[in-house]
Amino acid sequence: MLAATGATLAALALTACEDGTGTEDEGAGSTSRPTATATTDTPSDAGKDDSAAGDPTAAGGGSQEAGGGKNTGSGGKDTGSGGEGGNTDDDKTDEGADDGPDTRVACNGSNTTVTARPVSRPLNHMLITVKNTGSGPCDLTYYPVLRFDEMQWVPQPIEETKPQAVVGIDPGESAYAGVLLSAADGSGDGGTTGHKLAVGFQGRTPNSSGGPSAIPSLPAKGVYYDSTLAVSYWQQSMDDALTY
């Protein structure tokens, strides 16, 4: 009986231990299990971290490689830009080449000597001579712009004398223009005597400036002119300048 009673008490105690102390042991076990679980999770998380770290590294490497590719592309673009720049230079060179052949300059008071003298025939005429004193050829365009003293009007050209092309003068050579000073029959009015003459030069377009004027000497007694004063276009020969 006692033995049975003791066995029963032992069983109850064991049951109590399992219900009480056992629960605490399980709680401790639970505590260690989470720890174990955390320990188990930690390598897993570490693995994830390593994987994640690996991915960014790979991505970073890829990005760097891509970046390198982009940089290479940019270099290619820069090279392309250089190529385009080269084309631009070629275009400029072409433009310069277009402008290059046109190296002739305008004849004017700075690269010529100009004389003006009345002639006996035809009557009431004066001859203007322009001699190229420069080192290269120069061109005379249109007709001389004449101004006696303080004249307020410009003598008009004689259209019949207009040449077929611009008159060019080589160094040391001359070109000419004829001036009708007054009407032979006396039909002109406002006659006066000029003592100073300015000879103006035109540029590539009508009435534009071709450079400095020339002031040739006139006879001491001056030159008589009236309202019929007119001038020829520039001519290659003296005869052409005085034939009209």
UniProtKB/TrEMBL annotation:
Residues 19-118 are annotated as: Disordered. This is DUF4232 domain-containing protein. Residues 59-86 have a biased composition (Gly residues). InterPro entries: DUF4232. Residues 107-235 form the DUF4232 domain. It holds the Pfam family DUF4232. Residues 87-100 have a biased composition (Acidic residues). Residues 28-45 have a biased composition (Low complexity).
